[in-house]
Amino acid sequence: MSVQAPSAVVLVRPHTFMPNPATVVDNAFQMSAHSVDRQTLAAAARNEVTGLAEALETAGVTVHVFEDYDETRPDSVFPNNWLSTHAGGHIGIFPMYAPNRRHERRSDILDFLKTHYRVQDVIDYSGLEMDRVFLEGTGAMVLDHGGRVAYAARSRRADPVALERFCTNFGYEPMLFDAADADGTAVYHTNVMMSVATDFAMVGLGLIPSAERRREVVERLSGGGRMVIELSHDQILNFAGNAIELQGGEGRVLALSGRALGSLTAEQKAIIESSCTLLPVDVPTIELAGGSVRCMIAGIHLDRRPVLAGIGD
């Protein structure tokens, strides 16, 4: 078992999905869906979440799916932005940039986690929204759970003040850097350009303008012998960086979209497959909203509570 790869996840299956008009300003990955009927769009997104859940369960990952019928939560399919869990029984709740995303935070999901997993404390940073300070969970941060490093591309969704508070509370070293696409637009979420697994990391180094900071990021990522796979700008646009390593029933898997897998080279896939199995799932409708498979998954790094005799799970 790897501390990096959780064996259980939370997914939210939306019934009223659409690309969020409140986030398109700074999300260069987001696409218009005006030509698609909203009901058709929502049904397709719902089916894609179901497909992801089935693929993960087939691989031996425990999946907890929560339904969402709220029409005012277009981005609820991305729970990793407001929720993170950590070994030792810790949960983080995060401040969200777009006002219409703030009520994605759900007490029923927290109550479920407390009931079925060992939770010691919940640290809620959402009050920082009143000061316009934001840190959108493991979208804004890519966490190396073993090396205790929190990588974050500076943006309006990843404020250095909130990052510092999180790292102090949860015991991570902050690794903040600037990153921008070919047009000079700041990368809105770190997890679209970087993924950290147990034995390898994938990162769009070309998006980091500072040569010195690139070197420092590579140095930290390669600690302990981890292989660093450099992703091109085109691969980043195809969500190759938006992947997550999970613990399956017969070893670790790397969950990513079919589009992301198609952009990887044979050499890159060989490095990945030396330590885990590639698990592609097609999510083209979800990707219209500017996120992919990793954004859809909130990993559970908590210990499961034992099932007592005579009491149902």
From TrEMBL:
<keyword id="KW-0808">Transferase</keyword>
<protein>
    <submittedName>
        <fullName>Amidinotransferase</fullName>
    </submittedName>
</protein>
<dbReference type="GO" id="GO:0016740">
    <property type="term" value="F:transferase activity"/>
</dbReference>
<dbReference type="Pfam" id="PF19420">
    <property type="entry name" value="DDAH_eukar"/>
</dbReference>
<dbReference type="InterPro" id="IPR014541">
    <property type="entry name" value="Amdntrnsf_FN0238"/>
</dbReference>
